[in-house]
Amino acid sequence: MTTVIETIDTLLVDLPTIRPHKLSMTTMARQTLVIVRMRHSDGIEGLGEGTTIGGLAYGPESPESIKRNIDTYLAPLLIGQPSGNINTLRARMARHTRGNMIAKSALETALLDAQGKRLGLPVSDLLGGARHTHLPVLWTLASGDTHKDIDEAFQRLDDRRHCDFKLKIGANAVDDDVRHVAAIKAALGDRASVRVDLNQAWDERTAVRGIQALQDAGIELVEQAIPAREHAGLIRLSRRFNVPMLADESVQDARDGLDLACAGFSGAFALKLAKSGGLYGVLELAHVAQAAGIGLYGGTLLEGTIGTAASLHAWATLPEMAWGTEMFGPLLLEDDIVTAPLEYHEFGVDLPRLPGLGITLDEDKLAHYSRG
Ligand SMILES: O=C(O)C[C@H]1C=CC(=O)O1
Ligand SMILES: [Mn+2]
Which residues of this protein are catalytic (predicted)? Predict the structure, then answer.
């Protein structure tokens, strides 16, 4: 008998962060994960996660909209359908619903987790096989205080946890931000690479001034300096400076990637399951980038362990990423809802090797942190 999808439950899970995480558009004191539990008629449960940053501060989906739109619109499209044909189920969601890429990503992840468990294969094997089993992971310094950030960076270096750092700037005046970045880079010297993420905070004129100063300070990568939809401006910046531009909010999926590449962008793309609607969509973007000679970077929306593991399975199938990954989401959270956390060591993280995502929920922790 064909295995079908029987039930899909969604849970809002609030976890405190280890310290305030200050971005240009919001300061996070907690993270809300939307956890999907998808049960199939063969008794297998698939897990998925949809997560964004700061409610509606980061993008058009909030944790509450992700849950509501799965419950109301997306789950009914899947329930009763055969479990194993993920291409058909993706097409069904795309045909009947627009946008909501984080919600779709959570569901696709749950489908892949279940299929992997069913076949006894890790998700990366379902995607053709892992080329890496240990991936580099950077850390974001975003305490809002220069000296605290420097102490935090040295701690991470000494623990051999991270040797690349991303600084979140754009909330303060340009000169203050540049001073903050330059002080951190000067303190770390050659021990670490330092990059910045503006999260769209500058206009193009400000960006020209700010990026020149950041380049002079030895910054290695400048992420999303100007608003997402200003593709022409981003391309001008990528041509103007030696320091490469990393497109994040500007590049959601393969279509954006193709447009940017065809219009002359050079630099790198931040890949995120949340932007591209799941593992297949994000790999389509990665393949466009590869064809265009654009560098890859494994990005996060600060997902917990389930979403982070899903991303790792996708990144593991790619050639080495020019800019590594930022899959540190679980390390920013005070606690976890899984029985065995991901293993972070030697400046990176291990790819889980058990079937599916390789992650098991801790039911007590899940109940404790779930809303309602
Ligand atoms: O890159 C972003 O825009 C989102 C995210 C990734 C790391 C972090 O601290 O925030
Ligand atoms: Mn970013």
Answer: 168, 326
